[in-house]
Amino acid sequence: xxxxxxxxxxxxxxxxxxxxxxxxxxxxxxxxxxxxxxxxxxxxxxxxxxxxxxxxxxxxxxxxxxxxxxxxxxxxxxxxxxxxxxxxxxxxxxxxxxxxxxxxxxxxxxxxxxxxxxxxxxxxxxxxxxxxxxxxxxxxxxxxxxxxxxxxxxxxxxxxxxxxxxxxxxxxxxxxxxxxxxxxx
Length: 185
Description:
This protein has helices at about 1-15, 100-105, 170-175; strands spanning about 30, 40, 45-50, 55-60, 60-75, 80-90, 110-120, 125-135, 140-150, 155-165, 180. The chain is globular, with a radius of gyration of 16 Å. The strands form two sheets. Strands 1, 3, 4, 5, 6, 7, 8, 9 and 10 form a nine-stranded antiparallel sheet that branches. A two-stranded antiparallel ribbon has the order 2-11. Helices cover about 15% and strands about 50% of the residues. A hairpin with a 5-residue loop joins strand 8 and strand 9.
């Protein structure tokens, strides 16, 4: 029961994470059937949020929109949160960066220590780390990213996420295996 409480607290801290990542607002809760990512596994509860911004202006030189959706899946000992981010406009793109930098940018409330690159899983680039929300004990985590499309000098669409477990990092990998996200085969 202590594990469930810790994972629930971690997920609660992270659920509002995207608002701190430069997204438009606290987002709008949506039915998970309305977003492009899907997560289904026994013992997990999934919640989805749309952080899209209908109007963005890049230094007065380009305008467009941003489609950003988040899925959060929670079980007794593991959580997974993923963000599908894509700018909409002819001259707007996501800056290229490494996986660890993407994880830290999309999830600023997550403590990342002992980062170690890992083998790709299900088309996702993966890294392992210990961490989780800064205010709770460290968990066994993975960070993951799938570049869905390239655009000009940057990225046109990317799925970035983390999965952490109170138990073994294997549980985090198992959760990732249950995520269906754009760009997958």
